[in-house]
Amino acid sequence: MRRIVLLAALLLPLAAQGQSKFGQPPQAQAPVPGADSKPLAERKDVVSWRLLAQVELVKLKDRYVLQFSSGVAALDKKEVKVQGFMMPLEMGDKQSHFILSAMPQSCSFCMPGGPESLVEVKSKKPVTYGFEAIVLSGKLEVLKDDPTGVFYRLTDAVPAK
Question: What is the fold, at CATH topology level, of the domain defined by 33-159?
């Protein structure tokens, strides 16, 4: 019964407008910023997303733990540059706490990848939100057992020159 009520609530606004979005070809719908974007090109001056993806979940006695590659572990508490797409965590056009992603966000409710392709960012000064890739520099923390499930955090971040 709840499903019927929920479905009716979702479909009523479309019926009231006399139109339906179901069955429309994709080109008839509004474009989503970044949906047609490709992965970022590798750059020598920033930490590679391929490197950050070098993490495994391994069983240690009665629980699972993260095991980072030696290359990733060497970045812990180091000043680095990271390139990615901003995913805001706050309201407003300027963000001080946000997620940097290897891939652009194509859905407001979906994460574009797993935790190995995301970096939590805490910036010194607010950064203007946009759909294009940005490069930030800051101190990278490799998080082995963070309760939020985040693998990486960039603190004191500033836009790189």
Answer: OB fold (Dihydrolipoamide Acetyltransferase, E2P) (2.40.50)
